[in-house]
Design a protein that fits this description.
With about 250 residues, the protein is an alpha/beta fold. The protein contains 12 helices and 8 strands.
């Protein structure tokens, strides 16, 4: 049975004191949940990881990183390796986010290398894929996502792929306030699961967690999460507000 997950991507936001305040409030709110079926992952900036880990022990959430180096170690100033992340007992890391692809020119090959580094260090990649607005308008959205999966993920053997979480993020919906409709999200998630089944097998596809990311908030979360192939969300701006993030978690059950 696949996991239900809500992951919060803080991106480059908050001061230390602000982060401590949000995490403390989030800890209290998540502790009030009656249902504990949904896994909650918080992905703050690197400088707040230790703070988040300390608070996670008393809270109902786990901690993930937002990025990782494609290199194992060495003279790469400013980079953070998968081994470093793992040494902090962090089990999740976002890779392939559209902002990394756009602003830092990350290619499918670079993302593939990052996936491999994470897997070799027993860290589950939260692998982001998705299309630009022009690609959707040209009805190329399915092919774009298929290509991203094939080039960066489908080289993994089945036993390693089991550790991957996929996050579909239509690029045109990230930070714009415009989310994909529940029907659009379901179409793509079902298609991704179909691709996974063809590459591996049905049992692996049925147990693959696929999240939706892109202007998901407390108001639209329930409608998005009600789809049979939407297993949760990768939440951006709304994850910076403890009450709204907690409401999104509750919407998943």
């Amino acid at each position: 049975m696949r996991e239900k997950i809500v992951a919060g991507n803080w991106k480059m936001n908050k001061s230390f004191l602000e982060a401590e305040e949000v995490l403390s409030e989030m800890t209290d709110l998540l502790a009030e949940r009656e249902e504990q079926d949904t896994k909650v992952i918080v992905c703050p900036p690197f400088v707040f990881l230790e703070l988040a880990i300390d608070l996670s022990y008393e809270g109902q959430f786990e901690v993930g990183a937002q990025n990782v180096s494609e290199f194992e170690n060495g003279a790469y100033t400013g980079e953070v390796s998968a081994e470093m992340i793992r040494s902090m007992d962090i089990s999740y890391c976002i890779v392939g986010h559209s902002e990394r692809r756009k602003h830092f020119h990350e290619t499918d090959e670079m993302i593939k290398n990052k996936v491999d580094r994470l897997i070799s260090n027993n860290i589950s990649p939260i692998f982001c894929c998705g299309e630009q607005l022009t690609e959707r308008e040209a009805s190329r959205h399915l092919n774009v996502v298929k290509s991203q999966l094939k080039k960066s993920l489908f080289h993994l053997p089945p036993e390693e792929f089991r550790n991957v979480i996929i996050a579909y993020e239509p690029v045109w919906a990230i930070g714009t306030g415009v989310n994909a409709t529940p029907e659009q999200a379901q179409e793509m998630h079902a298609y991704i699961r179909e691709l996974v089944e063809k590459q591996y097998r049905k049992e692996i596809a049925e147990n693959c967690t696929i999240l939706y990311g892109g202007s998901c908030n407390a108001s639209n979360a329930h409608a998005l999460f009600s789809n049979p192939d939407v297993d949760g969300g990768l939440i951006g701006g709304a994850s910076l507000k403890a009450k709204e993030f907690s409401a999104i978690v509750s919407a998943l059950g």
